[in-house]
Amino acid sequence: MLTGIFTAIKTNAALGWIVRRVFDWGGWLAGILGGLLTLFLQLDPLTQSAIITVLQGNWQEVTLGSAFGFAVLAINQWRSWRATVRPQVVTSDKKKIELPVLTEEQARAITGYEGPIEDRSKS
Q: Residue 96's beta-bridge partner residues?
């Protein structure tokens, strides 16, 4: 029976593809679940109980204080993610400035480059 399963996996391309992906997806899934568990365990007990209550579908049992704490946590996580992925430049004196946008002439004057420039905005 076991050899029949292995033979089916070897001969069926789709089944073989799925079996090969199990290890990839398993690693991703374990990493994501581990990260979520770590974040959950770092929360205070009141917020943890609120999340468990919401996941169980008992919205009526969530107190306003714990819902507020969860909302603040969610907003702060979103703002942190946004600040991480936003393009930014920090100067040597630790001031954040907007990302400068140069014209072609300004860029050539600063760098001294005289070769062709590929236009990547249209691709």
A: 90
Give residue 58's identity as a one-letter amino acid code.
Answer: N
Q: Would you say 14 and 31 are in contact if contact means Cβ atoms under 8 Å apart?
A: no
- On the question of pLDDT at 41 being above 80, the answer is yes
* Main-chain phi, psi angles of 76, to 5 degrees: -65, -35
Note the helical H segments in the chain. 2-11, 13-41, 45-55, 64-85, 104-111
**In sequence order, what are the beta bridge partners of 90?**
96
DSSP structure class, residue 89? E
Q: How far is CA 27 from CA 22, 33, 56, 57, in A?
A: 8, 10, 27, 29
The pLDDT tens digits for 69-119 are 778 888 988 888 887 777 777 888 888 887 778 888 888 898 888 888 777
Angle at 45 between CA 42 and CA 51, to 5 degrees: 85
pTM above 0.70, yes or no: no
